[in-house]
Design brief:
By secondary structure, the chain is α/β, with parallel strands linked by helices. The protein folds into 4 domains: about 220 residues, Aldehyde Dehydrogenase, Chain A, domain 1, CATH 3.40.605.10; about 200 residues, Aldehyde Dehydrogenase, Chain A, domain 2; about 150 residues, Roll (Thiol Ester Dehydrase, Chain A); about 140 residues, no CATH class. The protein contains 23 helices and 31 strands. Keywords: Hydrolase, Oxidoreductase.
Length: about 850
Amino acid sequence: MEKLKNYICGQWMEGTGNGIPLYNAVNGEQVAVSDTEGINFEQALDFGRTVGYRNLSSMTFYDRGEMLKKVALYLLERKKKYYELSYKTGATHVDSWVDIEGGFGTFFTYSGLAKRMLPNTPFWVDGDTQKISANGTHLGTHILTPSEGVSIQINAYNFPVWGMLEKLSTSLLAGVPSIVKPSPFGSYLTNAVFQDMIESGLLPEGALQLVCGEPGNILDYVQDGDSVLFTGSATTGRKLKSLPSVAGNAVRFNMEADSLNCSILGLDAKPGTPEFDLFIKEVRNEMTTKAGQKCTAIRRIIVPEHLVGDVQSALSKALDQTKIGNPLSRETRMGSLVGKQQYDEVLRKIDILKAETELVYDGKHELVDADYEKGAFMSPKLFLNDKPFEKNISHDVEAFGPVSTLMPYKDAEEAAALAKRGKGSLVGSIISYDNEFVAETSWKMASQHGRVFVLNRDNAKESTGHGSPLPTLMHGGPGRAGGGEEMGGLNGLHFFLQKTAIQGSPDILTAITKIYQQGAEKKYSDKHPFQKYFEEVEVGDSLETAGRTVTDADIVNFSNVSWDHFYAHTDATSLTGTIFDKTVAHGYFILSAAAGLFVSGKKGPVIANYGLENCSFFKPVYAGDTITVYLTAKEKINRGVKGRNIPSGVVKWLVEVVNQREEVVCVATILTLVAKQSPFIDLKVKNIEKILNGLTENTQPKWGKMSPQKMIEHLEHGVMVSLGEPEADKCFTPEEQLEKWQDSLYNHRKMPKDFPAPFLAEDEKLLELRHKNLEAAKQSFMDTLKRYSIYYRENPQAEHMNFVFGKLNKEMWELMHKKHFTHHFEQFGLI
């Protein structure tokens, strides 16, 4: 039987012992063996701390976000084989989708967050700068850097893929190397996904290691800077947290443990209401999805005392209709537990529950294409706790399977009190259309819950469900649930980051943070900052504008244009008792006038105004005052661009408006979208002519078989097609791929050297030379290029067919020619 290999210190290795046999949860057949005997855990941790930390922490947050996206795309292409393995764990297709593609989705989400909100630096400036001296020469701020250690991630058996990827999404993005330790049960699925992550070549050396089996004494070697993330039982978690190596070395420890989650049916949600039906459906789903093996599953069903019978009856019918059996069957809606060992453990907990509560539903389901003897199948079981304030087993014991307990309450106070008797839960839900009931219950139960999910007819269609943790919201809970916090958007990164206060002068803080601090040296040059491409802009680039004297006419005109007739701008007789001496200029006029002073009217790399932040007005500006603006590049934010958008980044500019007395009257931060410098040549005729001077009959291509003349005639043909001479009658790219190909014209990726133009093989005429020599071909090409430059000025709306990219407009043709010319000029070493 195949042994699952471990990935340690950059090498795949088998354990040297007998290992743990792993079985198919559906038919009992052995699938693999997990074995970690012989692994040098001390060496593994050291490798992560040195090689892994060096490689990951030196990457920027932006680049790590891009890495997550590429890994997720790579895995998504290979998802079919993961599903085939997932069925062996007892998971249905829907269960597998949540585990597999839900895991990939977490990577995609964090990639998006990184590229929108995190800097293109290896550190992250956290919060605003604090002025800690009277004159502003001494400032303070905070930065976050990757904790200098390795993260050991111990995952549970119920989600072999998502469990790994939701932890890695934050640790990898934070820049901290990780050692993944899945539960042995289902680890053959984790192993398959992990193998592909490594084989993708997208992760730097040392970023990830895998321990597929027992963890041995790995935690004996943790030290300051390391972290442990644990998902499993509270008992095991507390033992690990109290280990001398963990507690004594201040090792960061995050635990997500047992959770007796509840769902509360509102007093208003009687049979026949949408909320009653939603409640039954939600409880059934949470009892049967993953066969109840979810840390977020509903274990306690809290309902109004007069509706207990109705809920019991409706839920029993719903459970009766749930087909149980082989996950590969289309009929199946609930699979098996992950194995016989877990089955026996759930039975043990059921016996404990029976001692104090009544088993009121134990569906004897016929299995679909499966056998109770061979597989780990269990029918759903519903208990009734008729006195939930006296009988406590329902609030203390979790049977980690399709098991839940029904219990009554009288009013909102009791409902919240019962919810809190779980002593700390990952999630509690309220299903009700009574806003007052929901409002009162939710805040009272919140202190013992990591998440409160409210469902009613208004959000039901788009609801993600009681049991679905989301990457942008915190996953964790207080008390019994472990006190941990995972995901939660960018907050999930803080566990892996060291927060450090930085103090110094404005120039020092600007140098450290790469964000301009007021009072730091400004860099002036003859080139207007708005004429610089994103790569050319440097933090501190500044512009001092000319002055503008504000007039009464300005104030009146702005009132009329904006319709802002606030009395302070228009009625001098109403200013008694105000802070104004006379009618005052509008704040937004000052900002608009400032923009008029600092913008460059000439077309340049600045594409658009992207936003406005932190605008404050400090002193009134009256008619007769003269304002001057200091514009300074404050911060650069790299930006992921897709679709038909010009590759660009965001530049934040500090705008300081002063009056004739050098008093600051307004400060704001404006954001502009700034184009990145294109790696492709422009199409100006003189520029192309100059480049072609270097092309002779003897020039040899760096790749391909084209002759110099053939290359020039090929380019000329492309330009003629863009003029409709001749009009191409066919596009060779399939319709479903055309949009993707057209989008590719806008990015800065070069054409591949080995791209086989689909039309060349079929049209031999294109391969025949049409001109008598190279010089004649050059001249004809330049004449055609001149005609092209005039044609689209005279016909800006014209569109013509391209053999590969379909019908293109003026903008698309220009982008295509730039890429195409660059490709062939580089082929012949001309640029």
